[in-house]
Amino acid sequence: ALKNKVAAIIVNYNMPERTDALVEYINTNVKWPVHVIVVDNGSDIAEPSKYTTVRLEQNVQTTRGWLAGLDYVGDDYLAYWFIITSAEFVGGDPLTPMCEKLILDQDAVGIHPALTKDSTTHWTHMQATGMQGCRPTWMIDNIASLYLADWFNSIGRFDPALIYAWGIDLETCYKARQDKRLLYICED
Question: Which residue of 14, 73, 78, 187 sits 20 to 30 Å from the alpha carbon of 100, by its own alpha carbon?
């Protein structure tokens, strides 16, 4: 039953060491059923990740790399997890509590693990506050965003015209708010 499974899509461009570390962290620490798809986005300086699933000959930039991963997996999943190669997970299983929230909260469509206090981000609302559980938010970045697949597919996924991924997070979160759906930061 794929509807409980998550498709984790990592787009790699010349960062095989970061990509490999993410895949190995997920494989070691995540308990939730997850299918990791690594899209090599035309790496031309370094070898692709040893976990590469889809190899693109030319760099199509981040958004289209994620869309290529989505084309590969289809739509029969509980959720899609979009992870950038500069992300690093600390402290256990980031996916399971996020999936549990998506299942338990009928209005939830997007969730993101809290960022550490020392993360370099302008989105300070995404940094950990020290609370437990999930807190509502107005927007999640696509550092390690998890979207409910049925809802995400219903909005047409990411806009392929926003090739550099700038704005796709804001647009997706705007669509969630427009649909009166909820977004969360998971502090677990």
Answer: 73
* First vs last C-alpha separation in the chain: 26
C-alpha distances in angstroms, 170 versus 30, 40, 110, 167, 174?
27, 25, 12, 5, 6
- The first and second tokens of residue 187, run together, are 């502090």
- pTM (two decimals): 0.95
* Contact assessment for residue 102 and residue 182, using Cβ atoms and an 8 Å cutoff: no
For residue 144, the cross-strand partners are 83
Question: Coil, strand, or helix at residue 58?
Answer: coil
Element (H, E) at 175: helix 168-178
